[in-house]
Amino acid sequence: MSAEKDNAYEQPTLTKSELVAYISSDQPQLSEQDVELAVNSILDRMSEALVNGERIEIRGFGSMTLHYRPPRIGRNPKTGEKVQVPEKYVPHFKPGASLRKRVDEGFKESLK
Question: What's 11-79 look like in SS3?
């Protein structure tokens, strides 16, 4: 994982290329190109499902849905001018119970 920290709130990040490299080293029977193809295929299909308004559910991990944000009046932070913000749909991830528990326990353990 990339461990660069610009400020106190930034966390280490696992990039897609790091994920591919990790899976490739963990599964030596798979080539890095095959793993990259699999990861890209999964992410493409998940993106396509969200674009089509489908709900994604991966047992033990979590679910992704779209949340509707109605149009509203916002403000330009630089000028203070009122700006019309259009309606939009944004992806929303809800972690599953087992993922929440695993992350909580693992994070607490890492603090010791």
Answer: CCECCHHHHHHHHHHHCCCCCHHHHHHHHHHHHHHHHHHHHCCCCEEECCCEEEEEEEECCEEEECCCC
Supply the angle between the helices 16-26 and 32-51 in degrees, to the nearest 10: 130
Question: Is residue 4 exposed (0-12), middle (13-18) or buried (19+ Cβ within 10 Å)?
Answer: exposed
CA dist 66 and 55 (Å) reads 8
pLDDT, one tens digit per residue, over 72-82 is: 999 999 999 99
**Burial classification of residue 21, based on how many CB atoms lie within 10 Å of its CB (0-12 exposed, 13-18 middle, 19 or more buried):** middle
Q: Which of 83, 93, 5 is nearest to 55 (CA)?
A: 93
What are the tens digits of pLDDT across the range 64-112? 999 999 999 999 999 999 999 999 999 999 999 999 999 999 888 888 7
